[in-house]
Design goal:
Elements lengths: L10 H9 L4 H9 L2 H15 L15 H27 L7 H10 L7 H14 L2 H12 L5 E4 L15 E5 L4 E5 L7 E4 L8 E10 L2 E11 L12 E5 L12 E5 L2 E4 L8 E3 L5 E3 L9 H31 L18 H36 L6 H29 L11 H11 L6 H20 L10 H5 L11 H28 L4 H7 L1 H28 L4 H21 L1 H7 L4 H18 L3 H6 L5 H4 L10 H10 L10 H11 L4
Parallel strand pairs: 1-5, 2-5
Antiparallel strand pairs: 2-3, 3-9, 4-8, 5-6, 7-8, 10-11
Helix pairs in contact: 2-3, 3-4, 3-5, 6-7, 6-8, 8-9, 8-10, 8-11, 9-10, 9-16, 9-17, 9-19, 10-11, 10-12, 10-16, 12-14, 12-16, 14-15, 14-16, 14-17, 14-18, 16-17, 17-19
The structure holds Palmitoyl-CoA and flavin-adenine dinucleotide.
Cofactor: FAD
Family: Belongs to the acyl-CoA oxidase family.
Organism: Papilio xuthus
């Protein structure tokens, strides 16, 4: 963070920091995943942020679309040089997934870099879908930025339903080439980040045809522009998809092929091959391994959700400590808005959710690494569970994060609506995460498939995988005895999830027994399946969050343990109060216990209040990364709002030309 001198800091924020009763650094270490990770992140930040190239003289949002894109490319190039020449030196390839790299990227780009998908998906797909020989060919070029790539899967007509993609890749054994073609308007590739004007290569997911037979979708590396002139190759039509709600510097593009040829070697052949004569050979043991990049990105998006929510919470909590409004007690000074319990209710759940998602995200990452290690040995048994886990966690984390970032904006009143607060841009960026890499509903339904099967296994007494093991106890179908202890609450959330899953399974069974097809019975149950999947995910987050807090604070100072446990308990109680209808249905909770729970929630808000600023300081965001007039470390909110306002092009002259052109003639009746 940019601390400046203490004298510059807003007096209310100074007092808040004196009130903080725990060691902030210890919490930072927990959030980063360990002291070594924090030190590495800080090292990366020091290297990357000590250059002026990240600073815009004119605020990004005051530039027109083309200027913004050009500026984003300029900064992307400077940033890529730093990544390539300095950051990869610090951490090696691991840097690509490091929080330091992710954070420093935000210092350069208020919106999104047109290179984001190059590092975010193009490089990971090369690592995940290429043979070692192909990796040796493509990876150094990509890391050296000699080529820039995008990931084009979605089409104008299909995003969710990958099997319905229409782009074809037909093998021609005579020339040992694939012929890429876009047979219809709806087969146009659409949305790929970096594709419109920036990328010269693209991973294209297309229906593979060889020897007259379709083998389903496969990924190909496709050169689309000349490396020197950057002109699209003949047979390639590429451009920008038009203005979007956010991501306007991300260069999302469209792409069409007209009988466009690429060498056979450009098919990514780790999981399936086409031999020179056109014979198709399946290498992978699991049908869905070509979907691997999506699983990887979904896993990373959980921590991405935590990261963005932590930024919003930092902005809103610091602002709420500086902002004073109203006079609840006559004659007394106006309170800091952070003293209003309603404001605490809006904001402390944001801090707690950022912790919950970050710690669950780190746990998911470790699970992902373990499954990957198994798969390297040829064992794909745990892939379905990972898919179910990453699908629902991606859905719920991105959805919660977007909703709570919007709540942070509401919590900042009118000033939260200023682009200079950075909350609107943050929201427009994060709300897209609910859609991309698998839509919310669609992913929850993927998890639901796994849950219904697990329920059937539980009923028949089979051994269950770890994340659904709780279903075995619930198969007895009795209401769980409510207790407001942490374990008791987690047990109740699990009972809710189990009850909902059981109801779905029963509904499907009932419908099929009366002659409805399985497919229709499934569709008729999808509203409840989504709810069951969400309940399962919530129970899992609660369990993982609490487990990680207990584990990670075991060697911490007592005060850190206390504040971390208060936040985790707040998260559980918040969700119990949000889902009282479900608890009444599936546990023995009664009205007096609900009243007790409400009191407990309000007590927790009061207990967390003195540490609120300390808790957001522990997220350790430098001002360059927050980009916020309301959230800077020093709390000079009003000064910064004024400084930013004065940078508006509308303040360059005291009278605009439109006055002379239109307003004056209108007033004089001469228009
Ligand atoms: C500084 C730089 C760094 C910055 C770092 C920032 C963060 C990083 C930024 C990235 C920024 C991204 C920007 C957006 C990039 C896109 O959006 S790329 C496009 C992503 N597109 C999607 O996600 C599409 C979503 N759709 C799907 O995934 C699939 O179509 C669906 C919905 C899973 C259905 O697939 P399907 O083949 O029809 O399969 P379906 O018949 O439903 O199921 C068959 C079986 O396969 C299983 N299955 C399905 N999928 C899988 C899977 N993936 N694995 C295993 N099993 C699976 C099912 O569970 C099912 O099993 P059973 O129940 O039969 O046992
Ligand atoms: C900012 C952004 C960046 C993106 N970047 C990329 C990229 O780099 N590369 C790329 O390939 N793609 C990219 N995408 C595309 C993205 O992956 C898709 O938009 C996403 O997967 C959703 O697919 P869709 O747009 O076809 O939505 P649809 O599938 O058409 O969804 C529309 C609605 O229908 C519902 N629906 C669809 N199917 C079902 C079903 N089976 N059951 C119930 N409901 C259903 C959905 O829940 C949703 O409410 C990007 C998208 C955005 C917004």
């Amino acid at each position: 963070m940019t601390k400046g001198t203490q004298a510059d800091v807003n007096p209310d924020l100074k007092k808040e920091r004196l009130k903080c009763n725990f060691n902030i650094q210890e919490v930072t270490f927990i959030i980063d995943g360990g002291k070594d990770k924090t030190l590495q992140r800080k090292k990366i930040e020091d290297v990357a942020l000590n250059i002026a190239a990240s600073i815009d003289e004119v605020p990004e949002e005051c530039l027109n679309l083309k200027e913004r894109y050009d500026n984003a490319v300029r900064k992307s190039c400077v940033y890529s040089n730093i990544v390539k020449n300095e950051l990869l030196e610090i951490t090696g390839l691991e840097a690509l997934g490091s929080p330091g790299l992710r954070r420093t990227a935000d210092a350069f780009f208020k919106d999104v870099s047109p290179f984001m998908l190059h590092l975010g998906m193009f490089v990971p797909t090369i690592i995940g879908q290429c043979t070692p020989e192909q990796q040796a060919h493509w990876l150094p070029k990509a890391l050296e930025m000699q080529i820039i790539g995008a990931y084009a899967q979605t089409e104008l007509g299909h995003g969710t339903f990958i099997r319905g993609l229409e782009t074809t890749a037909t093998y021609d054994p005579a020339t040992e080439e694939f012929v890429l073609h876009s047979p219809t308007l709806t087969s146009t590739k659409w949305w790929a980040g970096g594709l419109g004007n920036t990328a010269n290569h693209c991973i294209v997911v297309a229906q593979l045809y060889t020897k007259g037979q379709c083998h389903g979708t496969h990924p190909f590396i496709v050169p689309i522009r000349d490396l020197d002139t950057h002109e699209p190759f003949p047979g390639v039509k590429v451009g920008d998809v038009g203005i979007r709600m956010g991501f306007n510097t991300a260069d999302n593009g469209f792409l069409r092929f007209n009988q466009y040829r690429i060498p056979r070697e450009n098919m990514m052949m780790k999981n399936a091959k086409v031999m020179k004569d056109g014979t198709y050979v399946k290498v992978a043991r699991h049908e869905k391994l070509t979907y691997g990049t999506m699983v990887f990105v979904r896993v990373t998006l959980v921590m991405e959700a935590a990261f963005n929510l932590a930024k919003a919470a930092t902005i809103a909590v610091r602002y709420s400590a500086v902002r004073r409004q109203s006079q609840p007690k006559p004659g007394e000074p106006e309170p800091q808005i952070l003293d209003y319990p309603t404001q605490q209710h809006k904001l402390f759940i944001c801090i707690a959710t950022a912790h919950a998602l970050q710690l669950t995200g780190l746990w998911l990452w470790r699970t992902f690494e373990a499954v990957l290690a198994d798969m390297r040995k040829g064992d794909t048994d745990s892939l379905p569970e990972l898919h179910a886990l990453s699908s629902c966690l991606k859905a719920v984390s991105t959805s919660d994060s977007a909703a709570l970032i919007e709540q942070c904006r509401f919590a900042c009143g009118g000033h939260g609506y200023m682009l200079s607060s950075n909350l609107p841009l943050l929201y427009s960026f994060v709300t897209a995460t609910r859609t991309y890499e698998g839509d919310y509903t669609v992913l929850l339904l993927q998890t639901a498939r796994f849950l219904v099967k697990a329920w059937e296994q539980a009923e028949s007494g089979k051994v269950l995988t770890p994340t659904v093991a709780y279903l075995a106890c619930a198969a007895a179908k009795e209401k769980v005895v409510w207790s407001d202890s942490v374990d008791g609450m987690i047990r109740s959330f699990q009972a809710v999830a189990a009850g909902k899953i059981a109801a779905c399974a029963e509904n499907i069974k009932r419908l099929t027994k009366t002659g409805t097809s399985l497919e229709d019975a499934w569709q008729l149950s999808t509203v409840r399946l989504v709810a069951a999947s969400e309940a399962h995910c919530r129970a899992m987050i609660c369990q993982a969050y609490w487990h990680e807090v207990t584990r990670l604070t075991a060697s911490c100072s007592a005060s850190v343990k206390i504040v971390m446990e208060q936040l985790a308990t707040l998260y559980l109680v918040y969700w119990a109060l949000e889902t009282t209808g479900d608890l009444l249905r599936y546990s023995t909770i009664c009205e007096s216990e609900l009243n007790k729970l409400q009191l407990k929630y309000e007590e927790l808000l009061a207990l967390i209040r003195p540490n609120a600023v300390g808790l957001v300081d522990a997220f350790d965001f430098r001002d360059e990364i927050l980009h916020s007039t309301l959230g800077a470390y020093d709390g000079r909110v009003y000064e910064r709002l004024m400084e930013e306002a004065l940078k508006s092009p509308l303040n360059e002259t005291s009278v605009q030309s439109s006055f002379h052109k239109y307003i004056r003639p209108l007033a004089k009746g001469k228009l």
